[in-house]
Design brief:
Blueprint: E1 11-14, E2 32-35, E3 42-44, H1 59-81, E4 86-91, E5 94-99, E6 105-112, E7 114-118, H2 124-137, E8 148-150, E9 153-156, E10 159-160
Parallel strand pairs: 6-8, 7-9
Antiparallel strand pairs: 1-2, 2-3, 4-7, 5-6, 9-10
Helix pairs in contact: 1-2
């Protein structure tokens, strides 16, 4: 494998056969496991709106989590390259998904709301550029066909900025 190629593998196993398989729409569970060797099993289901278990992760949440995680990791990388010391980072991400009359649906947008704590003040313009730069290099954001917006805030030494 070349350095510019990265492959990922996992197993998704449906665990929701209640005895009759998919004989009826309400006759099966949407429960499933996401298995990655060496990691804890991730228990998944559908969104409760689609007859899923609210105590398990659903694909829509995981897509939002992937975007948020990717932006954070990309932001930390870009910050280091610009000499900006980040001491804490928290994102309260939100996504908007719409369903269509035919039962299909799609995400229309995601808004990331990272709250970044810095060791020292940084210019607002630089912070905007760091988030834009993170968005440009985030593998997940570059892979989706809907806008990923940012509403960041900055804290310096415990003070909102």
């Amino acid at each position: 494998m070349s350095l510019d190629e990265h492959r990922y593998a996992l197993t998704v196993r449906w665990t929701g056969n209640l005895g009759e398989g998919t004989a009826s729409y309400r006759g099966y569970s949407r429960d499933h496991d996401v298995e990655i060797p060496g990691l804890p099993v991730l228990r998944g289901s559908a969104d409760p709106t689609f007859h899923g278990d609210r105590n398990r992760y659903n694909p829509e949440q995981l897509l939002l989590a992937a975007l948020s995680q990717c932006h954070m990791l990309s932001f930390l990388h870009v910050a280091v390259k610009h000499g900006v010391v980040v001491t804490a980072y928290e994102d309260r991400a939100e996504g908007l998904m719409r369903t269509n009359r035919d039962g299909s649906g799609q995400f229309e947008s995601v808004t990331l709301k990272p709250r970044v704590t810095l060791a020292a003040p940084a210019a607002e313009e630089l912070m905007e550029e760091l988030h834009a730069g993170a968005n440009r290099v985030c593998f997940i954001a570059r892979s989706v066909n809907f806008p990923v917006r940012h509403e960041p805030s900055v804290v310096v030494g415990g003070q909102a900025g």
